[in-house]
Fold each of these.
Amino acid sequence: MLEKIIDAALGNAKADIVLKNGKYVNVFTGRIEEGDIAVCGGKIVGVGKYEGEREIDIAGKIAVPGLIDAHMHIESSQLSPEEFARLAVPRGTTTVIADPHEITNVCGIAGAEYIARAAKNTPLEVKLMLPSCVPATPFETSGAVLGGRETAEAIGRDLFWGLGEFMNYPGVIGKDPEVLQKIAAAHAAGKVVDGHAPNTSGKGLNAYIAAGISTDHECVSPAEAEEKIAKGMYVHLRAGSATRNVAVNCKAVNAANLRRFLLCTDDRHAADLKANGHLDNALRIAVAAGMDPVWAVIAATLNGAECYRLYGKGAIAPGYDADIAVFDDLKDFACALVLKNGNLVAEEGRALFGGERYLSDAVKNTVHVGKVTADSFRLALRGEKANVIRLIPDNVVTERVVRAVESRSGDVVLKGTDLLKLAVVERHHASGNIGLGLLEGYGLKDGAIALTVAHDSHNIIVLGDNNADMAAAVEELRRIGGGMTVVRGGKAESLPLDIAGLMSSLPAEEYIARSEELLARAYAMGVKKDVEAFMSLSFLALPVIPSVKLTDKGLFDVDRFCFMSVDA
């Protein structure tokens, strides 16, 4: 094969495939250049004037290296890996750095093994990170626990490319022995450690980085991004469905620091993928916000390859993997075709692969709930004021506000207010744990919404304005084995998520249609239009994102990293 590659590179033999008459982004020079792109044996063998056994005319179009999503969770699409790939690859994505901490929190390492095995049915290259925080904190109940010993045993496996986002940043700065054992194990295995440290700066940030954590995707401002890059980190520009910082934080990009920025999607829902795309959407946003198009491409390709040690990826140059996306232009980023390892895998937005599916028994039947009744959601206050979680649109960050709340017969009175009851019901071990709190800014009236997607431990999160419908929603999720439900007057409309209570085995189009029907029902019940009804709700149980969250063990003050009372 090597002789064949050399002959094709020299032009002494025809290449397997040649992309003819187009332009391409040279990520090394930062220029758009012209030339045929010759591919042989799954590798790019040269750019210039070439002939191929198969020639594809890309005149008027621009080729870029296959896009690399530098941080994401396949589970957040709520699709199987096969269906996720069918939506993402035709948009130009050929490689993802995937942290399966959602399914691992439910099913343990078996969940990660399922993701890896199912992804092999697709051309999408999935590099799995070993989840570092299972559970994310000790203040919640997860389906599995990966401590320092378990992490040390697993990190050396070929299954894992690195250690996933270290959300327990207080544990790093506080020198928690278990936390340090995990990081040390990753370093000993020679693997990258991803970060997650919102609003961390100064000496605390110095300590976090000094521990050997190299990336962050949680910057809330250009100034935060600039500080982290100045201290040697890579910073992700994120275009998720509920969390979006590309347009704001790309303002920090300049010629000197360009090579430290990455593009990622983090959490992107199936309907969003179908309607707006994947990393191509992040590229459109960046360019529309004023980022140089070539710089944006570099952030989506070469930078990710170098950060995550994906040798041979991220460039159109001799010897690099023939992972190539061809776009109509570098403004709208409409993807015309995609090559993966030299094979044509997508054309004009259509996946050229499919077929075999895989579903492990280890990720089925994962909802185990203790007895829940309407009385389980009674919330008795000692006084007349309560600490309330306030939603911030387009963000997973929340605010703590204090509100006057009337109580009657041992329960809060919600009628006439913008307040709703929020509960997290433990669903892995049937422990009976239920955390209770109040939420402002969501807008639901006369019913309840619940789902088994509640980052990162993925207990049941249920929201409503009456106890009976909240109890009915939990019972419905138990009945269907996990998923999403909207209840009014005891009547439930639901969508099962049969894979770990997180993902659907349905075809993408069918899943999207049914989820959009459920979303429409939620909005018809008063959910505010600037709130993503299900995805924003799913982040309210994540006790590593400021400022106040709710777990199955109670209301949690993320800023002080301790529990707090609902009473104010």
Note: The chain has two domains: 65-322, 364-563.
Amino acid sequence: MSARRLPGGMTTRTGLAGRLRAGLLAMAVAALCVRAPRAIAAAPGEEADLTRRSAAFTGLSGLARVYTAWKIPRATLVNKLSGLYFTREPFLLATQAHERFGGYMSFTLSPAIVETKPRPGGKGPPGAAPMWESFEVAFAYGAASHVSRDVETEVRLTTESAGDVDAALKYALPWPLFGNVLHLGANTGFHMLSRMADVGPDLATISPWARFLVSADFRRFFPLQAHLNVGYLQDNTLDLFDENQPVPPRWRRYSQGAWYEDSFLLGFALDAPVWRFIPYLEATAWIDTDGDALNDAGQKVGIQNVRQNPILITPGLRAFVTQHVAFEAGADLGYLSDDFPGATDEGQKAIVPPWQLFGSVSYAFVPKLPVLLKVRRAEGRLTGKVTDAQSHQPLGRVVIDLEGPEKNLPQLASEEPSGEFVLDRLAPGAYVLVATLEGYAPLRREFEIKKKEVTTIDVPLAPLRMTGTIAGGITMKDGKALGGLVFVQRKGDATPKIMSTDAATGAFSATLDTGEYDVRAVAPGFLESKLESVRVSANSETRLAFVLDPRPEPKLIRITEEKIEILETIHFETGRAIIKPVSYPVLDEIAGTLLENLDVNVRVEGHTDDRGKLEVNVGLSQDRAESVVDYLVNKGIERSRLTAVGLGPQRPIADNATAEGRAKNRRVEFIIVGGQFREHVSQVTAPPGGAEIKWAVVATDPHAIVYEARDGKAIGRARSGQRLAYVATEEGWVSVRLKTGKVVWIKAGDVTLLP
């Protein structure tokens, strides 16, 4: 490095500005040429915590100048190249213009590359990482070029520095506080200037500093993180100048990088990570410790208020184009104070630029540790990853307990957000791992540790079945309880769950899986309730109250053994299959009757007169029959109980030669094809002695086993909702009469007796 003598006997560190800029440009190109991942977007569930792969200007994990209390991932190397620029006229002197171009090249490393020793005895909170893995080291190399121009004489003075050094060490507390929100740490290091007239560092300028770090991670609630730095700087950069020479003016000290004094260091920052973007806002201040500052004459003068200390407000944005490569841009906004106390020229300000632009590019190299690992002793290493067995997403903060040949094995916790865990220096032998997390079933895994080998296991945790309760009752309008059935159907399921209510209280209750359900209630002699949509939540009770209206006496239909006769014609729009509203009441009465007789199946037949083409009439009758089926299904009748058939003019009941006959032939009929209505079952299944029939409804989902005798051979199954004639009850068994007249037995818990 060469040196140049300036007017007034001052010596400066010099070099060619072009060479400096070319060197910085070459480093930038080299950094960008580092191999990056092929895919810009991360695979689902593998998005890295990019805020842990970010470094400050002079190294160590952080933003621009504010450091974070967490550290970069273990064994990670972050290489960052930064450039800064500002120009101002006037600056420091009313007759002086100033231009600065500078930059930093920094390296940040988490040194835990090989096996590490866990905390003695496994003491400490769950998930505590080995102490060594919480350290982080950094090294930075700085260079700058300053051009000061006298606006009156156009005389230019160029000061160039290349070789300023920053070194730092940081320790992050390995376990967070308050539910993984608060992180604590500390760092220390030094800043050193290069010699003014020679190559190499000037040891006299070593300026040590230390900071206490606090970071708060609120991303579990909203995308925001906060950071606070409090520290102290012992500044020795003025020792760069010859003590036998007068203290240079402030613009010279600023150009040489020797403008600090012993200071308290304060920094606060907010950042809001959103996908791969990290916008942030910083405030940093250097508060003079003795309340004095050097003026241009080298005299100590008092600082009258805090504003006269150097203060910077820094907005910035960091963007990761891949999981490893990040670009950053921002600006330093200097907080301009009143005139500097004891200033020799009007207009002098505190030594901070009014504005300064910066940009940077960084590359984070994150190796796969099992590849780099070289176990040097007889012990082995355990690595693994905890995932959700259903979604396959990683799970953090899973507590992992180990049992094995060693005593006092440490308790681990999987990391967030990767779900990974690591434990080094395990003695060879058989081990058992137990992983636990609230809301998941504990998992027990057996594995073996071998000498000088890495054992990797996957830990898929199965979510526990989450249940809630649905309860309520069925009553009349006057509050009297009703015995009946409640149909609970989970959305998306094909069949409902049927619950019976207590005949005395009308109450019902059931434990169900969490989710959305449709619920309806029926009771003999009453209209069906409206369909209620409810949500069953975990560990909570959902209550429903059904108030049923009495079913009016049949007015529009008559039931025979073969069919449901309708006393009013079902009307459609001319030539179409759209039901007219005038026919809704008769169809509603049919639906209510079918809901009370769950074992009855019906064929809906559509008929027409013989006017027109045969195929057109058959198609129209089919469409009309299907419209009737759709209407009944919407009223709660299972579609499997209904069949639509279009017969056209093929089965007339009157003469098509007359208008009256054709009107009778245009009809819909409801033919019973399975089961029997309650009013007519007595003809086949009447109990002995002429007693009034009572009914047993099968309430087991989906079927109940039918036995030939109590505790005897099973001969078949009765489907859910089927209505059977009740005969007697004996010691937990109910005897019922089948339609064939045969008496069989069903367990009492599988049926509900209707009054």
Note: The radius of gyration is 43 Å.
Amino acid sequence: MSRVSSTPSANSTARALLQRLRDHGIETVFGVVGREAASILFDEVPGLDFVLTRHEFTAGVAADVLARITGKPQACWATLGPGMTNLSTGVATSILDRSPVIALAAQSESHDIFPNDTHQCLDSVAVMRPMTKYAAELQRPNEITDLVDSAIGAAMTEPVGPSFLSLPVDLLGADVDPSLQHPPARTPERPIGAVAKDWEDAAAQAAELLRGAEHPVLVVGASAIRSGAVPAIRALAERLRIPVITTYIAKGVLPHGHELNYGAVTGYMDGILSFPALETMFGSVDLILTLGYDYAEDLRPSMWQRGIEKKTVRVSPTVNPIPRVYQPDVDVVADVLSFVEYLDAASTDVSAKTPHDISALRDRIAEFLADPETYADGMRVHQVMDAMNTVMSESAEDGEGTIVSDIGFFRHYGVLFARADQPFGFLTSAGCSSFGYGIPAAIGAQLARPGQPTFLIAGDGGFHSNSADLETIARLNLPIVTVVVNNDTNGLIELYQNLGHKRSHQPAVKFTGVDFTELARANGVEAVKAASREELLAALRKGVGLGRPFLIEVPVTYDFQTGGFGALAV
């Protein structure tokens, strides 16, 4: 099998690839390099940095979150074969969580691509195509710039998502024709969506429904943020006194303490609170306007179908992909910002509404968070979230920091309780929800917001599934404060065992103990344990003040009474 042996020139495909990525505004490539290092060093183009991660999944998720927060395409890299398959979970995250990621992977030499027969050779495009917006393999070096342009354009089209390029290692080292002229790189400022020809007629119907509604609500999803509609949504909500409810990842559309911020919805909220939360949020609502609603964000129509009969308006830059599940009375296929501006102008004579009363739910949440009890068997997650909120409010200007949640039962406490004072101020993977999401998501968040605090909450199961990249956090000296809530158990799975069987099966969910403080220190991260609210508050404050990575291990126990979870809306 031949290998690249000559030194790549200044006109190499690799350099043209990196230059076009840089032309599109990409400044960072996350990843793990293999033998294609003979063809590409990643220092060929000024202003483009390579961030080495311990695992390709980390690279994919870090790019996903950096893209989500910045609203711009971001890139990740893997070597051929197993590197590409490791990266695929990060790609799956960005398709289900809607981030414009440009995923790149090396491939065998162009003359030796025999998938499943050549060493480390798989049909990369066939693997990636079902979970990407665009997937292609480089056939001729001179086409690399065009392939990057196609990948960017597809990734920035709603619903935004990843594109993938497979790059044979010999072609990476080959020369492109320097005399070829390419048009300037055109990166959309915002995602491009569908616009129905009759959208204004549908918007007029929505305005009439709003005019006659007594208790309307705005249910906001992430594409409303991507459209730049947040200021307009806030202005409309405040002028007409319309409450705002969000999906997991759209928390922060209104600040945490805003009177019209009615919170984010999770199907676990009734069980966690032992309270009819969904009924309180939606029971008396007569009109729901879903702005940028996306079924992948895990807010199901069944969650709002409580109480009185309702009218629904769907506003989205995509054609409704789930008409069997969501059948709105009015469907507006248009840019969310354009719709909100239209609705604002069409409702100048509409009187302010009377927001429906959710004071009982707010009282229950406040009671939960204020829980003063000291538990012998470990803290409760709501106490942990309250401590994180407290220190966030102390340490962040105007509360503008980021709380990142890995995947597990605790995540639903974050959806309910985590402070978010800006769009994407609370980050989790609503769509893919893969264990180990937390560390790479926190890396992406801190790189996107270097002047703001980043807090990560992770369970012992998910955290240790990807804990090798603690070293990446330490190497980059990112001031991420990590809280590992540890019960040596996959807690959410234990809940499902109890729901289905009225008992748990410990071999399927129980781990032996891991000292996460020692693990952190072994990776160059200072760490402490905290067993009470007072110890946790002190540790969080210390972590924020250090200006470098810090980890806190907190023993926890879940008190779930399965009866409260019997009708999970998930």
Note: Residues 1-5 have pLDDT under 50 and may be disordered.
